[in-house]
Amino acid sequence: MNSSNPNPLKQYECGEFQFPHDAKHEYYDRHVVFDHVVSMDAASQRERFEAVARSLRDLLTQRWLLTKETHDKENPKRVYYLSMEYLMGRTLVNNIINLGVDKFVRDDLRSDPRQDWTDVIETEPDAGLGNGGLGRLAACFVDSLATLQIPAIGYGLRYEYGIFKQTINYGFQIEQPDHWLARPDPWEVTRRSETVQVPVGCRFGMEKGVLVTIPGHESKLLGVPYDRPVVGYGGRTINTLRLWGAATPDFFDFGEFSSGDFVGAIVDRLLAETVTRVLYPSDTTLAGQVLRFVQEYFLVCCSLADIVARYEKSNKDWQHLPDKVAIQLNDTHPAMAVAEMMRILLDHANLSWDEAWDLSLRTLAYTNHTLLPEALEKWPVRFFELICPRLLEIIYEINRRFLDDVEKSHPSDENRATRMSIVEEGPARQIRMANLAIIGTHSTNGVAKIHSDLLRSRVVHDFAEMYPERFNNKTNGVTPRRWIKLANPDQSALISEAIGDKWVTDLTEFRRLLPLVNDSDFIARFRKTKQVSKERFASWLKSALGHEVDPKSIFDSQIKRIHEYKRQLLNAIHIVVLYNRLRSNPETKMPPRTFFFAGKAAPSYRLAKLTIKLINNIARKIDADPVCHGRIKVVFLPNYNVSLAERLIPASDLSEQISTAGYEASGTGNIKFMMNGALTIGTRDGATIEMAEEAGEENFFLFGLTAEQVVSTRGWYKPIWHYENEPETRAALDAIFNDHFSKDEPGIFEPIRESLLLKGDFFMHLADLSSYTQTQQQVGQLYADSDAWTRRALINVATSGKFSSDRTISEYAADIWDAKPCPISH
């Protein structure tokens, strides 16, 4: 740092950071040479990336410290967001955008003629901290919290290997370690002095090479905090994402070692390191289930200990806890916080049960993210007995008191009490985490209107009847900074030219685009931004993965976690229908279309992995058939992550949101596509319903059964009827199941046949196939009229303002947290 101007924040003006004039290259050059002990000429691309990142961290550090100091001084109510996932994406480019220093990177650092700074950005790996929509939502939320200047800390786990790196081999998904931390992460700051001790009710050992638990012998884990800056747009507030890494106490028993009895210490260390090694260990084995349970317990213990320590620094009276602390549980993963908060208030603060329960209830809130019963977590009582017996005692007492209340309100209704109990009786008793979360918090929210309605009316009806005031909706949103300004610079520039740039922090400004829908010049320019994005993506795809695609074709994208209810299989069957049409009549008229798929399947999810295999086999067969050349192409993009989404979403013409109605809680990918000028083909599900309400259903391609129809037809639905009575359906399925796409692997897709035709087709692929196929024909017809297509695309963009995460967070802050901005002075 230049000694004559030690504080770069003196250059902070109009919400943008600037480096001091006389230190333009000092930060970067210093980090290249002194951090890595290399000359500028010898520095690798990775070393140059780290130098850029650390230069920016130098720039934001004082503002980061000032944010913390202001919050400590002002003692406002703070929001603490607990989530097992944060799908952050790359940090460098996001911080460049939010700090407003892109000119610094673009101009000042280009003094180094050897480096393409686009390549520098590409060097950073995506942080392996999440998998799907849950984690990306959390990332958008912490961005909005900082941008809205709401004091907040996000808590999560520092997964060393993420979930996994996906590769495709002979069409199959192959899971490999995603070692995103193989090199030092320039953004994280280790806070070892703030390490937290987590008590564990047992020890682990080895017997004949098998891991065993040793009950009654307590042990400890250490939670080491790693802090990452969360930069609000304009750099006014820089909040913190605190990630916990697991370790063991630094204790070495020399006598034990000398006697040769050191296996226990080695096992303890290995187990501690394993706790935060991967996201979502497989739950098909007992060891995997225990590990995931320990992860959730570890996250909750570390985070609440940290929250309480912060509270006690500035507050002496526990009665003010709900006035200073708001804790949001992102799904059931952190639901143990209900019991842990009670433990702290009972055992640490020495409050009475009634006092502790009142304070805990008013402090905690819960977001539900699923309508799938199997996704509502349940943990064996045995796990609690082994790992955290004190929490189990508290849960039993919470349940006893709660069931007393149920009995008072519904005397002699044993079935209701059984349904609502936190403890599920059976051969192996289990703790229902969703029940615990609802009972122990003052707010339960869904994430789209239909989701919240179905949650109240079906999934947890008894609780909604008992606590109607606790249930509310907060429709999801995404941050426009990353998903429009960063991801789609051409569209962003055109919009800012037309209406100014206030939209970056107030997306309702997009409605000012509506009068331009009939402006032929603007429509042509808007269409050009889409074409530029498609050409850019096609160029990247060829260089990165070797696929050649036609940027003039319809880019039709379905990118999301691979799951039966999301119905990638429905999309694949429709592609086979089109393929069969071309084979039967090569003169069939249809616009050229490129189908993109991306997403990961859980390693143990056989049908999901088989769907990936089917998609890749279809792609290979179509590529080899001359009749399809230039007409249909299918591409499965491996290792889907935030950076890939940033490339593909702006380039996409059509967004596939085709889940079985009533099963998608909200979706956020659907929102990102809408904001970037893609039209949606979808069911009336999740946030897609509200998107269509904003834009008008005539500007969407909606099809298929409604959520009500799915329920009402389930009792008599016969998928075999569609096979027997719909010729195109039968021909497509015959092609798949008679090995047309798998001649060297006969019978490989038999489990899919069994699922669809013999086991009831639970997610109703065949029930919706004809409607989906007909609606896809409408897609092709409209695409032929480029002006009409572009007008609808612009209407979608113009009406997407409701779906900013800034709006969502403002509603959380007002309705659930009672949290207000705490501006940071310059």
UniProtKB/TrEMBL annotation:
Keyword Repeat: no
Known catalytic reactions: [(1->4)-alpha-D-glucosyl](n) + phosphate = [(1->4)-alpha-D-glucosyl](n-1) + alpha-D-glucose 1-phosphate
GO terms under biological process: glycogen catabolic process
Entry keyword Mitochondrion: no
A Pfam family assignment: Phosphorylase
N6-(pyridoxal phosphate)lysine: residues bearing it: K672
An annotated GO cellular component: cytoplasm
GO molecular function: glycogen phosphorylase activity; pyridoxal phosphate binding
The EC number(s) this enzyme carries: 2.4.1.1
Keywords, alphabetical: Carbohydrate metabolism, Glycogen metabolism, Glycosyltransferase, Pyridoxal phosphate, Transferase
Membrane-spanning parts: none
Cofactor: pyridoxal 5'-phosphate
InterPro entries to which the protein is assigned, alphabetical: Glycg_phsphrylas, Glyco_trans_35
Homology family: Belongs to the glycogen phosphorylase family.
Function in brief: Allosteric enzyme that catalyzes the rate-limiting step in glycogen catabolism, the phosphorolytic cleavage of glycogen to produce glucose-1-phosphate, and plays a central role in maintaining cellular and organismal glucose homeostasis.
Entry-linked PANTHER family: GLYCOGEN PHOSPHORYLASE, GLYCOGEN PHOSPHORYLASE, LIVER FORM
Protein name as it appears in the record: Alpha-1,4 glucan phosphorylase
Species for this entry: Novipirellula herctigrandis
Organism placement in taxonomy: Bacteria, Pseudomonadati, Planctomycetota, Planctomycetia, Pirellulales
Gene name per UniProt: glgP
